[in-house]
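Batch manifest line 318
LIGAND: beta-D-mannopyranose
JOB: complex structure
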Amino acid sequence: MANTTFRELFRRYKQNPILTASSWPYPANSVFNAAATALPTGETLLLVRVEDRRGISHLTAARSDDGITSWRIDPQPTLSSDPERFPEEIWGIEDPRITWIAELDRYAITYTSYSTSGPLVSLVLTRDFKTFERKGVITPPEDKDAALLPHRIGGRWVLIHRPVSGFPGSRANMWLSYSPDLKHWGDHCVMLEARRGAWWDANKIGLSPPAIETSEGWLVIYHGVRMTAAGCLYRLGLALFDLEDPARLVKRGDEWVFGPDESYERVGDVGDVVFPCGLVHDPATGNLRLYYGAADTSIALATGNVGELLDWLRGRPS
Ligand code: BMA
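JOB STATUS: finished
ARTIFACT:
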């Protein structure tokens, strides 16, 4: 008999969601779209987007020994917008991604600043998630879903991001930009295009967590947005890019690999959204923990394995 079930590549944690506004030490409307990293202490750190009851978001750190339970949440916002010094943050800061940059001995956090001209990408560096060196705007609006690769390629830093233009009929594609100093960016080029028509990833895609460096290439988990009469559906797909030249696509999966299904993903402030901004990957086993915003309301966890993701991609049609 034909196997008609999709082999789940990401397995939901049974007690999802793992963090909600009711877990928060101070009033919040929603907690979602968290960046993630493994700290040298072995703890998992999530940098959580917290939306307050004005609609403005800030970022707050939560730490856990097993990355699943017993989260220790900073009692106050960890990184808030600072519109006096950085006017582009006037309507808050959202959707962070964390990349450990060994050369700088610092974590780089790219996040969306919500400016009066629309969303754009800002960069901040930190060693400890307590003090921060704000680097300000790195891409003009409209742009979001950005993360750095963890090291230079050909002497330059590499940023994955998702600019949007108002040009009629244009699609929201993923782009790459390069920089000698993390400040001046150039050689912009398309990395991955949104498909067209009925596809699950038609018209609008974006990077989800930072790319994973594997022996076969940069493994990218990206979101595709399907616009329907009932609203948008946010789902996840996979693509692999050349290690030396991340503008070169090696393979793109045809089907989505994860999408809204459980009630906490389907119902919330924005229903039918799974939106991961972070993962923790153990290179020894390939196991990964994917942290995702569920329905723009809470944070949920799914586990997977990089080897299995690569196997799946290999088996898909070219
Ligand atoms: C995207 C981002 C995310 C959000 C998603 C679904 O454009 O703004 O912050 O989770 O929409 O609302």
